[in-house]
Amino acid sequence: MTLGRAIAVVGGFTMLSRLLGFARDMAMARVLGAGPIADAFFIAFKLPNFFRRLFAEGAFASAFVPLFSAERVRGGVAEAAAFAREAQAALLVVVVPFAALAILAMPVVVSLIAPGLRDSPQTVAWAIDFGRIAFPYLVFISLVSLYAGALNGLERFSRAAATPMLLNIVLLTALFTLPRFLPNPGYALAIGVFVAGIVQWLWLLDACRRAGLSMMPRWPTLSPRIRRMLTLVIPAAIGASVFQINAMLDVVWSSFLPGGTIAILYYADRINQLPLGVVGIAIGTSLLPLLSRQLRDGSTDAAMANQNRAVEFGLLFSLPAAAALGVAALPIIATLFEGGKFGPAESARAAAALLAYAPGLPAFILVQAMVTGFYAREDTRTPLLIALASIALNVALNMAFLWGTGLQHVGVALASSISGWLNALLLGWVLVQRKHLIADRRLKSRSWRMLVAALAMGIALWLAVGYAGDVFATPGVLRWLALAALCAGGAAIYGGIGAALGIIRLSEIRAILRRQAGVRPEID
Description:
- This protein has helices at 3-32, 36-104, 106-113, 121-134, 137-153, 158-162, 164-177, 185-210, 224-239, 242-254, 261-297, 300-327, 329-337, 344-357, 361-375, 381-404, 409-433, 441-467, 469-472, 477-501, 506-513.
- The protein is mainly alpha-helical and 524 residues long.
- It has one domain (3-513).
- The longest helix is centred in the N-terminal third of the chain and has 69 residues, at 36-104.
- 54% of the residues are buried.
């Protein structure tokens, strides 16, 4: 399968999931607002998701997928499936005791992740309750991440990419059906998180069965290939999860700020996560198994070409997205979230955070494209060292912004953007120095033209927002129509300028969406 088609498959399903996620977040904003219940739930929700990305997506996806691909090349699907069962046993040995310990020690966990809430005992009590209900999600979603890695290693991307939609469907169902039976809506959402983990696990367990991957449990063994995977897991867990580590640190800093700040940053980050999830994760998910297989086969020229195209795709979509989110931050936040317990004051605070998050978006997406070049070569140490430098900068900037300026929650978002750029630039510099990334003529010639097109689109959107400012300040259908027109107009302007500058060509779009000859369809 071509890289472009794989990105289109993963990105398409991720887009559907993100749209459902927006529906979920809009409902939560109206029901929870940006108060203590919202802060408590988002703390509880972030905990299992953070460790899932650390243990499963960050570590196992980065260490497991290249080894799984190698087993597939060496011994076929049967041998790869045997390795996947070994990895599943090793994962459960770690995750199940960890989840049990975290549930028992939830008061300590909450105090560590939100130390600034000591003066808000009710918020802390809710966070502990919600965390204990939701944290078992970690076990099921870790298995989901492992199964998704195996399916991606077989270049069967669709079922895994569609899985996050189930979380949003279950949470929406829980939010609209359970609150009447519970003390507050936070309990309903925490129960929904737990149930969603089970549903997603069953969904991908069936997908593995259909793909010929038997995931029957087995007794854990320390085989040579598991030992090899374990040597890659620990540095990969930090290196691949630097964005999530910084996001969790944002909770720590936010807990020292006025009540509702944790929720405000969550809503702003959710907007910023849309292009990151659709483009960045799609690139990383599609590129890792492809690069791993090509490097194993000795196809270094093809691997280099795909690395260049991944960077190009990242810039193509992230530059205009960053410009649009920065210019139209307030109209986007107000239209999507304002209503119920989420008012204009909350919209203004969230929009200021989104404006600070937006410049870091291209960096976060480029990291997804470039870090894969290390993991495909089974190098997890270098991204770890770079990630540690990025995290250190994030901590230093937050301390400077929070206690040296009046930026408050905007400083938290800005620190994430700056540290993200350090991560991306260092990863790119090392790849270039090692000659693992040599920019081809197409990437060099198109990069600056993408920047020009994005800036022109940003100026046009800025003028449009200024002209229609009163429309976005008034709730109702007209505001939604204005936002839709703004998005469509921005896309048309970028597409038109891109076509004029030669960075967007219909013939190339058709070509990258075609399946490689002789490769069976990946839609299962």
